[in-house]
Amino acid sequence: MASEVDARTLESLDHVGIDTTGLRSKAIDEFEGQPFHYVITLCDKSSEEASRMPSAGEVIVWSFEDPVTSEKHDPFRHAIQEIHDRIKMFITVKTR
Predict the structure, then answer these.
(1) Segment holding 92, helix H or strand E
(2) What's the count of helices (H) and strands (E) in the chain, helices before strands?
(3) Could you say which of 1.50.10.20, 3.40.1440.60, 1.10.150.130, 3.40.50.2300 is the CATH number of the domain covering 7-94?
């Protein structure tokens, strides 16, 4: 389900140099019928939705701590760094 993007997410992406112009939350229905080799989810709720996508090749579940409820220092920047690191590892493994 699409929702409003938390301003702290946008601030954290800006901080690491990612252009946030036009970024928005999207409902999974927007991708209906589009084929995907991989669908990577970041939480349990989204993995349930992704498992219902008939056009998804491999569904990979990465459960990250929700930065909204995290008690870590700078949780949004921490989450972005964790996702960045995981994507780098994913690319390394899948391109061997």
Answers:
(1) helix 75-94
(2) 3, 2
(3) 3.40.50.2300
How far is 35 from 55, CA to CA, in rounded Å? Answer: 5
Name the residue with tokens 């590892």. Answer: 89
What is the token pair recorded at 3? 């929702």
pLDDT tens digits along 32-82: 888 889 888 887 777 777 777 767 788 888 988 889 999 989 999 999 999
Measured distance CA(65)–CA(81) in Å, rounded: 12
CA 71 vs. chain centroid, Å, equals 20
